Amino acid sequence: MTTIALASWAAVATVSLTALAVRGRSYAAFSAIRLSVHTLIVLALFRYLDPLPLGFTTVRAPWLPYVFGCLHGLVYVQALVLSRPRMMGLPYRALCSVPALTFTAGTILALPWAVASAFGATPHGFVLAYFAALVGLVQSLRPRVEQVDVVVADGTDRGALDRCPVSSERSERPLRVVQITDPHLGPFMSVARLRRIVERAVEREPDLVLLTGDFLTMESQRDPGHLATALEPLAPLAGKTFACRGNHDLEAPETVQTALDRVGVRLLVDCATSVDTPAGRVQIVGHDYAFRRRKERMDAVAAACPRQPGVLRLVLLHDPGAFKHLQPGDADLALSGHTHGGQVGLVSLGLTFTLMRLFVQMPDHGLWARGTDRLYVHRGTGHYGFPLRIGVPAEDSLLRIHAHGAWSETQAQT
User: Domain total for the chain?
Assistant: First the structure.
C-alpha cells in the first residue's frame, strides 16, 4: 500500500511539472487538482480490493489489485500525453485513453464510498461504481437512433419555462432536420466514427443539417483536417448546412472555422440567414457562445436580425441555459446541446429524470417551452472527458418539425 501511494504521488508531481513546462499554469493546475482527487479516492479504496466487500460477505479477488493498479497507472500516462495533445490512433485509444478515462469515471462515482471509508466504514459494493462507468462507456459509444416530431408556431402559450408535452398535431410536409451537436472529436469520438454519424445524417435526406457546437476536444484542436475529414460527407449539402459555436470551440476558433469552410458548412456567429427548403422558407439565427453579458449580446442579435413575416425562425443556441435570455417570440424553435442530455438519469427507461436537474435548473434534454417559443435540447453524439453517460444514451435523431400558423399558410401557397 505504501509503495502504490508513493508511486501515485510521484506520478501526480511528474505530470503536473511536465504540464507546467509544456502547456503552462492553467493546465498544470487542472492536472494537479484532478489527479490529486483521483489519487485520494483510489488510495482510500485500494486496501479493500482483496478481499472485496460485497454487502454481507466478502469475495477473494487476488487478481483485482493488479487490474486496478494497471488502470490507475494508465490515468497518469493519459494525463501526461495530454501535456502535448494530439489525435491518437486506435491502438492508443483502445489500450490507454479509453480505459483510463473510463476508470476515472468509475473513480468519481466511487467518491461516496471513499468518503465513507475515511470515517471508518467498510465500502461495501464500491465496485458497482466501476460497473456503472462501463455502462456509461457503452451508452456513449452506441447512440439511440430516433425520429422526433416537434410541433412549433401553433400560437400556444405554455407560460413559464417547462417541459413541453408531446403534441399529436402534424403538418402535411414537416421540415426534416438532422441536428449534430457535441461530437467532441477525440478519444471517444474518432474521425471515422463521427464520419459514420454524418453519413447516416446525409442518408436521411434532410432538408437541413444543423450543427450546434462543441466539435473538438484538446486532442483535435491543432489540425482542422480531422474535423474536415469527419464532416466531409456534408459537402454535397452545401447551402443546407449551418452551424454555431459552443464553448469548447472558442478554445480553437480558427480550427473550427477552417474545417467548416472546407466542407461548405456556414458558421453563423451572431448573425442570420434564410434558406428555401421543400417545406418552405426558413430563417436561421446563429448565436455565438458567450461567457458574459449573454442577454445584452442576444438582444443585439435579435435587433440586428429581425423576424421575417411568415417565415419559420430557427435559432441555433449551443447552451440551453441561455434560452431564458431570448426575447419572447424570438424563436419558433431553438436548437441546443451542451448538456449531453444531463449525462446521468433514467432516459433509457423512458423517463425524463436526470441527476443534473437536481443541481442545475436549466433544460437538460428533449422539448421545452416558454410562452410560444420552443426549445429542443439534443442529448449529443459524444461527450467531453470521461464517459459519465449513464441512463442517458447519446442521440442520433431526425427531427420532423411541424409548423402551423403563418408559416404553414405560406408553405401551402408555395
Answer: 2
User: Using alpha carbons only, how large is the chain's radius of gyration in Å?
Assistant: 23
Domain end (from 98, 122, 138): 138
**Which grid coordinates are listed for 375?**
426549445
In this prediction, residue 314 has a pLDDT band, given cuts at 50, 70 and 90, of very high
What are the two backbone dihedrals, phi and then psi, of residue 202, each rounded to the nearest 5 degrees? -65, -40
> Where does a domain end: 115, 138, 161?
138
pTM: 0.91
Range of the domain at 56: 2-138
Burial of 101 (0-12, 13-18, 19+ CB in 10 A): buried
Q: Parallel, antiparallel, or unpaired for β 175-180 and 373-377?
A: unpaired
Q: Per-residue pLDDT tens for 359-373?
A: 888 999 999 999 999
My answer on whether 399 and 302 are in the same domain is yes
- Residues in contact with 84: Cβ distance below 8 Å, sequence separation at least 6, in sequence order: 22, 23
Q: Are residues 278 and 169 in the same domain?
A: yes
Residue range 185-235, pLDDT digits in tens: 998 899 999 999 999 999 999 999 999 999 999 999 999 999 999 999 999
Average pLDDT, the chain: 92
Q: Are residues 78 and 198 in the same domain?
A: no
Q: Look up residue 168 and give its amino acid.
A: S
Question: How far is C-alpha 121 from the chain's CA centre?
Answer: 36
Q: Any idea of the CA torsion for 193, 88, 387, 77, to the nearest 10 degrees?
A: 170
Cα distance between residue 247 and residue 255, in whole Å: 14
